[in-house]
Amino acid sequence: QNLVKMLENCLSKSKQTKLGCSKVLVPEKLTQRIAQDVLRLSSTEPCGLRGCVIHVNLEIENVCKKLDRIVCDSSVVPTFELTLVFKQENCSWTSFRDFFFSRGRFSSGFRRTLILSSGFRLVKKKLYSLIGTTVIEGS
Q1: Going by C-beta distance under 8 Å and a sequence separation of 6 or more, which residues neighbour residue 44?
Q2: Partners of 88 in the beta sheet?
């Protein structure tokens, strides 16, 4: 549950500072699914989740934007890194709505809503090992 809260807090902090939107709509149970995958990937590590650093990104139109860096336990030297990539939902109506309102008299008070896809990418990189990276595609 703590990991789910960390992910949700990251999105909440990023919405106005890095994403420039007023709302981020997250599919039901997305953060729980990601947390389960993170826990599974950390289960084979010497320090478990405590040795993890998560780089959180958002992919919008094939461009990755860095949102935040989550250090699971700052008292432990990280043994592996995870790169989490949220993906934007491809909804043509939201793009049309944003275009329409940004050109008219409503633009000053309008802030866009970002809708996340249920898909994500999680890449594990061991920091002190010769073993390669692990990639998980969630859908």
Answers
A1: none
A2: 116
Query: Hey, what CATH topology would domain 1-100+109-138 get?
Result: Ribosomal Protein L22; Chain A (3.90.470)
CA–CA separation, 88 vs 42, rounded Å?
26
Q: What is the pLDDT of residues 64-105, one digit of tens each?
A: 999 999 999 999 999 999 999 999 987 644 444 444 444 443
Parse the chain into domains and list their residue ranges.
Answer: 1-100+109-138
CA quadruple 52, 84, 69, 134: dihedral sign: positive
Q: What is the pLDDT of residues 15-43, one digit of tens each?
A: 878 888 888 999 999 999 999 999 999 99
DSSP sequence for 1-60: -HHHHHHHHHHHHHHHHTS--SEEE--TTHHHHHHHHHHHHHTTSTTGGGGEEEEEEEEE
Q: How far apart are CA 23 and CA 85, in angstroms?
A: 18
Could you report how far apart the first and last alpha carbons of the chain are, in Å? 21
